[in-house]
Design a protein that fits this description.
Blueprint lengths: L2 H19 L4 H14 L5 H4 L6 H18 L2 H5 L10 H16 L4 H18 L8 H12 L7 H17 L14 H22 L16 E7 L21 E8 L2 E4 L12 E6 L1 H8 L4 E3 L15 E7 L15 H5 L1 E7 L19 E6 L2 H6 L5 E6 L11 H16 L5 H14 L5 H7 L2 H19 L2 H12 L4 H18 L2 H19 L4 H12 L9 H7 L6 H26 L3
Helix pairs in contact: 1-2, 1-17, 2-17, 4-9, 4-14, 4-15, 4-16, 6-7, 6-8, 6-10, 7-8, 7-22, 8-10, 8-22, 9-20, 9-21, 10-23, 14-15, 17-20, 18-20, 19-20, 19-21, 19-23, 20-21, 21-23
């Protein structure tokens, strides 16, 4: 190898070491390595920035906006509880979790799907006395199963597809110049998803731990009292408390109902909801946010409709009343809170006490904690105010635009149909969907702009540059020759080696980085063996996405780590056998579906 090739390989080995053994941010490590290779002339500017012009990378960025529209309208949150009924057993519960999540993750980014399902499953497991630790790893794994079933199921598929398009145009591979079809990868993805679900259903019950979440062991002593009104147009009207999902709320309970001037206390789970019922809840901050996002319930105070901005542009802010607050000794109604601060009090907490009064009738005292609905600029305007001891925005408290949820789902379906039928390329369909999400106000421009995960994109772009360094210096070919020689020139054994190496990279670094670094090596192997590159492309796609053995290999694994009360070893026990199952099925079926 030339000195450039040795430097490229050495740089990537150092990068792997830093990613595994240090806590530096992955994008910083990869970008530093890329700048280093560019500075010494191993790659030129076009190669270093090749990721910025790749269709796969741009598609990933655009799809973040599409997903933002679904999240902002609450479309995912509305769909998730529809699939969870009353489970007859743990087997039934796991199936009810995995089947819809696999289907949804085939068309949506895994992260928001899992984020929406975690609180739902936590409440659901508590309601039916099922251990959440038996359900949350299946939730994460099911999201991965769905991701390998379509081209848009995961960013890894899009990135590898972008690499394939670029490679095919450079080497005149006519069949693949436009990349893969939407459901091409489903030929192997569906068998893998079925095998993965069967493994979890049969073996998961014994291997998965029965453990309490660390989050459930800590109680927040600050309980808020909040009033909500049942919207007359809501589907909640006529439902029982239990059927409406108000019976087993995490960290919150329904204290009483006021109906036409009468008070119903010790509310039965079979009590039917009426239009305009005033429901009084007591609970912690996180549950209050979930309650605000529940379609069909509105804050009891009519003041929220008098604020200047639409509800979807507001947030929840927690403030603590100081001894110089001008409304001390007055009720919230008398204090003219909305007029003074352009904010409405929707909940009150006082030293952990349950205040048995309507919100507007509560007399304010120093130290009272108020949950207010307001515009984001409230924090900047009041940060130096002596009226409050504390001002803190509640995380993820922006209210969904439920009235546009149906429109967001239609836009997503249209994007999938356009791409699947070949009427538009995946990039074109995604761009149209993203623009429609913004124009129809399913997602505001600010939300759309902030939804793009720059960390993920920078990792992919930097990995593209490093991959080009391996290719242009002939290092990829040399590495491929070595693996081919060790495998005895058998395409099957070489494919096995590609899967194994990619899988190890995925578990220790990032799935996108692993795919991009292994792609040029896989293409060099196909060239050396004089076989079709497709088995290697598909194998890299699968191996880079199938991260089951560690919580750090895939973001959804990390998301369920704390809520499930898991330990690192739990993922090793359940994940390593699943990794081996995926390896065996992939290496056996891929060459049969896409012949060498």
């Amino acid at each position: 190898m030339t000195w450039e090739a040795w430097l490229a390989v050495s740089t990537i080995l150092v990068v792997l070491g830093f990613l595994v053994f240090t806590r530096f941010r992955p994008e910083l490590i990869l970008l530093t390595a890329l700048v280093g290779l560019f500075s010494v002339g191993v790659i030129d500017a076009k190669e270093a920035l090749s990721g910025l012009a790749n269709q796969g990378v741009i598609t990933v960025a655009v799809l973040y906006i599409v997903v933002a529209g679904l999240k902002e309208t609450g479309a995912v949150g509305i769909m998730s509880p529809l699939f969870l009924g009353k489970p007859r057993s743990l087997f039934s519960a796991q199936l009810k979790v995995m089947a819809p999540v696999t289907a949804m993750s085939a068309f949506l980014n895994n992260t928001p799907v899992v984020a929406m399902f975690i609180p739902t499953i936590m409440d659901w497991s508590r309601k039916f006395r099922l251990p959440a630790s038996k359900l949350l790893i299946p939730l994460s794994y099911a999201a991965i199963f769905g991701g390998i079933c379509t081209l848009i199921g995961t960013s890894t598929n899009l990135v590898v597809n972008g690499l394939l398009i670029s490679y095919s145009n450079q080497h005149d591979l006519v069949p693949y110049k436009n990349g893969l079809a939407m459901f091409e990868i489903a030929k192997i993805g569906l068998p893998l998803a079925v095998a993965g679900m069967l493994y979890l259903l049969l073996a998961g019950r014994k291997i998965l731990p029965d453990r309490t979440s660390a989050l459930e062991q800590v109680e927040d002593p600050k309980e808020y009292t909040v009033e909500m009104v049942v919207d007359p147009k809501s589907s909640l009207v006529g439902q029982s408390i239990e059927d409406a999902g108000l019976r087993h709320l995490k960290g919150m309970f329904l204290m009483e109902i006021e109906r036409a001037g009468e008070l119903i206390v010790a509310v039965s789970p079979h009590e039917r909801l009426h239009a305009e019922d005033r429901l009084v809840f007591v609970g912690v901050v996180e549950s209050l946010v979930d309650l605000q996002k529940m379609p069909g319930l509105n804050p009891a105070t009519r003041q929220i409709f008098k604020l200047d901005s639409p509800r979807s542009e507001r947030c929840l802010v927690e403030v603590v009343v100081s001894n110089s607050f001008p409304g001390l000794g007055k009720t919230i109604r008398e204090s003219r809170f909305r007029t003074l601060y352009n904010a409405v009090v929707i909940a009150v907490s006082r030293n952990g006490e349950r205040i048995k009064k309507k919100i507007g009738d509560i007399v304010l005292q120093p130290g009272d904690a108020l949950m207010v609905e307001t515009v984001p600029s409230f924090l900047e305007q009041q940060k130096n105010s002596r009226d409050f001891y504390l001002i803190n925005q509640v995380e993820d408290s922006t209210l969904p635009r439920f009235e546009r949820a149906g429109l967001a789902i239609v836009i997503l379906a249209g994007m999938v149909i356009l791409a699947a039928t070949g009427l538009m390329s995946m990039l074109n369909a995604a761009l149209v969907a993203a623009v429609l999400m913004v124009l129809t106000r399913c997602a505001s421009w600010d939300v759309a702009r902030k939804s793009v995960d720059m960390q993920v994109l920078l990792v992919i772009v930097a990995a593209f540059g490093l991959g080009r360094a391996l290719e242009s210096t002939q290092a990829a070919g040399t590495i491929a020759d070595s693996i081919i020689t060790m495998a005895g020139h058998s395409p099957w054994l070489v494919l096995l080696a590609i899967y194994a190496i990619t899988s190890v990279f995925t578990e220790t670094i990032t799935h996108n980085g692993a795919a991009v670094l292994m792609f040029p090596i896989g293409m060099a192997m196909a060239s050396e063996l004089h076989v079709s590159p497709m088995p290697f492309v598909i194998t890299i796609m699968i191996a880079a996405s199938a991260s089951f053995a560690t919580p750090i290999g895939y973001q959804t694994n990390l998301m369920v780590y704390g809520p499930g009360g898991y330990r690192f070893g739990d993922f090793l026990k359940i994940g390593i056998p699943l990794n081996l199952i995926f390896l065996a099925i992939t290496v056996a079926l891929v060459p049969w579906i896409w012949p060498f």
